[in-house]
Amino acid sequence: MNKMNKYGYRGRRRVIIDSSIHTLKIEEDSAIMKTAVIGIGNLLYQDEGMGIHAVNALGVRYGFPPECEIIDGGTKGLELLPIIEEQDAIILVDAVDFGKEAGFIKVIADQDIKAYLDLKFSVHQIGIPDMLFAMEFKGIKPPKICLIGIQPPPEEFEMEPRLTPVIAGKLTELVETIVVRLRAWGVKVETRKPEDYSELPMEYRNVSGDPF
């Protein structure tokens, strides 16, 4: 079973970017593409912590190569920039106000992200738009970047670490959306066996405290 480092679970695989066709090829002696999945949010306030719940669930259900980090970004905001700067590919996961029905999941990738720079759509004080502006200002441009957001309910968040039922019910879909993107980038994602879940910390299980 993969060991958990400071930021998450890691394993091993070699990949390279073929810039001519914008795809990833797996090769024996290729350079390693560093990838990070960063969950953003506050676990103390219901669905505001959805990004954190998602990466925790991701770390429980799947194993990853050593060049792929699963990171609890919490409410660190701009403090995450040094981590982002080191990556070749980034997935940001957050509760996002798209103005849609609660539980709506949207994937925004690469050049499409720029269209959202002028929108204050993150539910946090220092949200993803602020991070994207700072990245652009500092010239931090990971070759691949993706935002995966989920629409929270319109009600104000309460100080409660458990997700609301409608959002908790979308957790598996959100996690699988992350996995689909990683695999499309050529990252080897391995499904863990259910019996492995009991060996992991309680906070890295699902929101009810039970294995998936």
From TrEMBL:
CDD domains: H2MP_MemB-H2up
Matching SUPFAM superfamilies: HybD-like
Entry keywords, A to Z: Aspartyl protease, Hydrolase, Metal-binding, Nickel, Protease
Coiled coil start-end: none
Gene3D superfamilies according to UniProt: HybD-like
Record flagged with keyword Chloroplast: no
GO biological process terms held by the UniProt record: protein processing
Gene Ontology molecular-function annotations: aspartic-type endopeptidase activity; enzyme activator activity; metal ion binding
Similarity field: Belongs to the peptidase A31 family.
Name this polypeptide is given: Hydrogenase maturation protease
Organism listed in the record: marine sediment metagenome
Origin organism lineage: unclassified sequences, metagenomes, ecological metagenomes
